[in-house]
Amino acid sequence: xxxxxxxxxxxxxxxxxxxxxxxxxxxxxxxxxxxxxxxxxxxxxxxxxxxxxxxxxxxxxxxxxxxxxxxxxxxxxxxxxxxxxxxxxxxxxxxxxxxxxxxxxxxxxxxxxxxxxxxxxxxxxxxxxxxxxxxxxxxxxxxxxxxxxxxxxxxxxxxxxxxxxxxxxxxxxxxxxxxxxxxxxxxxxxxxxxxxxxxxxxxxxxxxxxxxxxxxxxxxxxxxxxxxxxxxxxxxxxxxxxxxxxxxxxxxxxxxxxxxxxxxxxxxxxxxxxxxxxxxxxxxxxxxxxxxxxxxxxxxxxxxxxxxxxxxxxxxxxxxxxxxxxxxxxxxx
Length: 333
What we know:
By secondary structure, the protein is α+β, with helices and mostly antiparallel strands.
């Protein structure tokens, strides 16, 4: 909790008031003691520390980035999704905060118990649906009379995006998100008791020219078995399994080394027409585009990788590598 810092003039005025008897030092001490007592609302029990909330924020920032990429490719329009806030509130307060008619999806996260709820602002949901059907992404809010086809398309769109949540949560737990229910009235969804603490992740979403919110509601019962993994100490210790990682890298390296590739030494090339090809006979000479003194090109899987010179080794044709060719591959930024 931040403390108020007094200026020098305020300190002088306070000392002067105590000296003149205008203020009593004992009363100040009593006031200071009273300030240490804070009202605690048991209906808003905070079950997650700031450290754990920060960890959830990092995870869902990664989820938001992956959703941005996924929906950009799927909808073929400008998409921007980012975390706006991560709060812990009673479930009842979350339900009251969302519209009376909205797009609600509940997902199970096997092997974890309980379900999570994802609420899409209708403006965002209908913009996605419009783009899926080939439109411009306009918002036509007709949530009261969704057709079966529209409901199916929305369900498929939202369900396929949950692969990104699975990847984002891998640092916590290997979960398998499965869509359990699609609803438009929050009053019909009672996942946990009204006073149960839930974590609400709010995502600011822009689909084309349409903006809105996506809310992810995660009950405490879902996170309880893995809450220890949200600690900063767990994140610091997580990479300590060096032996397992090194074993995986060794297996991967061995697999790559056993892979076969085609290697060709090109003596030269030329082009002839079909008539000349048909009339070729033994003893005919073809003029290549390669000088006898020039190094040969060595191709690995049709990519030029080396320069070499021809020769013999143990009465067999051979080449000697003279130079490696830099192919100028793309570098990671």
